[in-house]
Amino acid sequence: MDKIINKFYSEVNFDLSSKCTSTKNDCVVCLRDNYFETLEIDYDCENKRKLYVVRYLPVHIKEVKSGLELMSISKRDELLNKKTLNVMCLGGGPGTDNAAFNKWLVSNRLFEKKAVTKVNIVRVDRCEEWNNISPFIIRHAFPDDITVKYSKANHDVTKHNLKVGEKIDLVIASYLVSEIALSDIPKVVENIKNTINDKAVIVINDRNQPEVREKISKIFELLGCIPISNYSQLHCDYSFDSEIVSKTQPKFNTSSIRYLGEI
Q1: Rounded distance between C-alpha atoms, residue 24 and residue 150, angstroms
Q2: Residue 128, pLDDT score
Q3: Residue 245: CB partners within 8 Å, gap ≥ 6?
Q4: CB-CB neighbours of 87 under 10 Å
Q5: Which of 200, 208, 180, 217 lies closest to 91 in space, CA to CA?
Q6: How far apart are CA 18 and CA 41, in angstroms?
Q7: Three-class secondary structure of residue 76 per DSSP
Q8: What is the DSSP letter of 127?
Q9: Per-block average pLDDT, block size 10, for the chain (263 residues)?
Q10: Residue 225 near residue 262 (C-beta atoms within 8 A)
Q11: How far apart are CA 149 and CA 81, in angstroms?
Q12: In 86, 96, 141, 228, which residue has its Cα 20 to 30 A from 106's Cα atom?
């Protein structure tokens, strides 16, 4: 994790705001306020994307892994005893979902390897700009005794018909639902239904706000699934360098709500 954080921190230009069209005059404030001022988040700025990784990667990995840990032991064993496990990350962004899954996979094979020998992971994101950042993150902590195949699909799941090949066993969506309208939920669910097998697991991590919870509840209602959830606050389990803390004001504690539904 140190290598990832230090790499992107070293590439952030904190003076860029003085030449930017944004009215914020501060890159950290511009990134932070973006999530409270608009539904469709803008990641066109490369500086913003790199700062996002530094500020949010550790805590978002913790949140998604916490959501995965809501899985029942029987369902976990069912997934890990598949020879090939197919995973889909919706709205994958920089690859946070992948990294969280990797850490979950390692921790759940620590004492018993299970049958899985190959994992196929498809990242679905409408924002192509993440494609030059995600390669540094998606392989973080992945176990070296399992074969992994990565693929990406730059699709908007609220508009396009999604096709990903093999039926998906595990879907992870982190901070996707808060960026889409309630009216678009049926199309998102249609895409999920068309890509998963009949015993899939759905994990959603997002803002703990009434309007977001309403949309997440609608997703599980349309999937015909009653989820479990957790919103406890947890430390991100990462120690930032003091200079990075001062300059980027990273997020240390989880604040999301995590849902898991077993189809």
Answers
A1: 37
A2: 87
A3: none
A4: 21
A5: 180
A6: 21
A7: helix
A8: -
A9: 97 82 75 63 85 96 98 97 97 92 96 94 91 94 96 90 93 95 97 96 97 98 98 97 96 97 94
A10: yes
A11: 18
A12: 228
Distance (Å) of CA 202 to CA 8, 24, 70, 134, 170? 30, 37, 11, 22, 6
Cβ contact 185:219 at 8 Å: yes
Residues 215, 242: Cα–Cα separation, whole Å? 38
Q: What is the pLDDT of residue 43?
A: 81
Scan for tokens 């914020």, then name that residue.
24
Residue that has been written with the tokens 């849902």 in this structure: 259
Per-residue buried b or exposed e for 57-86, using 16+ beta carbons within 10 Å of the residue's own CB: bbbbbbbbbbbbebbeeebbeebbeeeebb
DSSP-assigned beta bridge partners for residue 178: none
Helix axes 73-80, 96-108, angle to 10 degrees: 100
Instruction: State the pLDDT at residue 20.
Output: 73
CA 96 distance to own-chain centroid: 5
Is-above-0.70 flag for pTM? yes
Angle between helices 46-68 and 96-108 (to 10 degrees): 30
- Tell how strand 147-153 and strand 168-174 pair up: unpaired
| CA distances in angstroms from 6 to 57, 96, 102, 191, 248, listed in the order given | 12, 16, 20, 37, 12
Helix (H, G, I), strand (E, B) or coil at 223: helix
Residue 251 confidence (pLDDT): 96
Question: Which amino acid does the sequence have at 125?
Answer: D
pLDDT of amino acid 18: 65
